[in-house]
């Protein structure tokens, strides 16, 4: 069975005044229909760059996709013409950006913006698209959607703006939704409401979801499969159950040990990951994580470890097999 999305050996670079930054290095993963896949890691590890590359939104210059394939239903998105990829955006593949206030147009009403994809991709007239847009606002639990459709983004709270983004993304019934840190800067109650809403929309429409986050609590509750990124590379890939039950890469183990857990005594102290992420302009030789790794040995500095299998559909990029 062909995966809905299959990313193969993706490489992305950004040219800066100080040199070339390898933002994503040989990233490979796939997403099945109806599956929630999470891309997890610290800020700057390449998660958002990977998401933007899927929709061909890497601005050149300074960025460029240097190699790899992004297959959507077997067709390489990187080989499509501008008109072909534009037809997919907002229709078959939709994206929920991290900060809705910078994604929504401040001079257009919310109703007009939710209706726009329906006009563009479904050929609906203005009145029909607006009526459908109001229904979409109601579906994401916005009270009095008819009146609120005439409001502007600055008249909504952060959580309400993110609901609008979800309505826009789901409007055309996409096959794949990419959610880039959709709950950043929101309080935990609103986060849970939005993620429950997004998960319900995905389940109802059988949409695949790529969830980009640094929040492992979010991942534990919603994701079917997890890919952990560090310094532009995927270092561990497994089902959510397998990864939380038995993490195998030292970085994943460090992430999990630094998260509070309700099943641990209050007196237990969190164990932070020592050090800082590496300078992307001067990555250490060998495994990029070895300067911060408490399991590192001399061989870790000699070569970049490839992803290898350590179990049933469980892979790690580490020369050691640490049982977490």
Identify the notable features of this structure and list them briefly.
8-stranded mixed beta sheet; 4-stranded antiparallel beta sheet
Largest sheet, described in full? 8 strands, mixed
Arithmetic mean pLDDT? 91
- N-to-C terminal Cα separation, in Å? 32 Å
Structural class: alpha/beta
Radius of gyration from the CA trace?
Answer: 21 Å
Give the helices and strands as they follow along the chain: EEEHEEHEHHHHHEHEHEEHHEE
Binned, the helix content reads 25-40%
> How many strands appear in the DSSP assignment?
12
| Unreliable segments of 5+ consecutive residues | none
Tally of helical runs: 11
Strand order of the biggest β-sheet: 6-7-8-3-9-10-12-11
- Structural shape: globular
Strand content: 15-25%
Question: Could you describe the 3D structure shown?
Answer:
The chain is of the alpha/beta class and 324 residues long. Helix content is 31%, strand content 24%. It contains 11 helices and 12 strands. The protein has helices at 47-54, 82-88, 100-103, 110-122, 126-139, 145-148, 158-170, 188-205, 216-222, 240-245, 250-257, and strands at 5-16, 19-31, 36-40, 63-72, 75-76, 93-96, 176-180, 208-213, 225-230, 233-239, 308-311, 314-316. The strands form 2 sheets. The protein has an 8-stranded mixed beta sheet with strand order 6-7-8-3-9-10-12-11, sandwiched between helices. Helix 8 (188-205) links the parallel strand 7 and strand 8 (208-213). The longest helix has 18 residues, at 188-205. It is globular. The mean pLDDT is 91.
